[in-house]
């Protein structure tokens, strides 16, 4: 819900059932798209998965792409992977939730509270950016 900036789980159900989503899911998973998981099923799964495990999945995916030599064509001078490190916004809130919140102000009035993160990505000339670590 947060990744695609939707306001409710019901909206996710509609997003997951679009033809475009099903086509993209079929491309990345090589599975039939006639069965899309219900948002409640996804929520139950994510409740049991620790954040560190999700980060580990991302690292394993990047390692596998490198091992399979899928990214060789994107190396700089045929040797190096180009890695960009960038600070970016992560989460915004309407109210302060911790003492470390940064603020966005306009005319002396706080518009929202937020947190930044540092992101490292493998990047390509064509604009593809694969997150390595946050």
- Report, as a whole number of angstroms, the end-to-end distance: 19 Å
Q: Which band does the percent of strand residues land in?
A: 25-35%
Structural class estimated from helices and strands? alpha+beta
Name the helix and strand elements from N-terminus to C-terminus, one letter apiece: HHHHEEEE
The dominant shape is: globular
Q: What value does the average pLDDT take?
A: 82
* Count of strand segments: 4
Question: How does this model look, in words?
Answer:
It is a single chain. This protein has 134 residues and is α+β, with helices and mostly antiparallel strands. It has a domain at 74-134. It is 34% helix and 28% strand. The chain has helices at residues 9-16, 19-29, 39-48, 51-67; strands spanning 82-93, 102-106, 109-123, 129-133. Strands 1, 2, 3 and 4 form a four-stranded antiparallel β-sheet that branches. The longest helix has 17 residues, at 51-67. The two termini are 19 Å apart. The model has no long low-confidence stretch (mean pLDDT 82).
Layout of helices and strands:
Elements: H1 9-16, H2 19-29, H3 39-48, H4 51-67, E1 82-93, E2 102-106, E3 109-123, E4 129-133
Antiparallel strand pairs: 1-3, 2-3, 3-4
Highlighted features:
134 residues, single chain, alpha+beta, 4 strands, 28% strand, 4 helices, 34% helix
């Amino acid at each position: 819900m947060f990744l695609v900036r939707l306001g409710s789980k019901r909206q996710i159900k509609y997003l997951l059932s679009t033809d475009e989503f099903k086509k993209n899911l079929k491309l990345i998973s090589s599975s039939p798209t006639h069965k899309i998981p219900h948002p409640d099923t996804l929520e139950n799964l994510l409740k049991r998965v620790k954040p560190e495990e999700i980060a580990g999945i991302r690292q394993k995916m990047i390692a596998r792409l490198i091992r399979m030599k899928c990214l060789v064509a994107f190396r700089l001078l045929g040797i190096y992977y180009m890695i960009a490190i960038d600070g970016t916004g992560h989460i915004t809130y309407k109210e302060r939730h911790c003492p470390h919140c940064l603020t966005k102000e306009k005319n002396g009035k706080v518009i929202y509270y937020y947190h930044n993160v540092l992101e490292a990505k493998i990047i390509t000339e064509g604009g593809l950016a694969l997150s390595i670590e946050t």
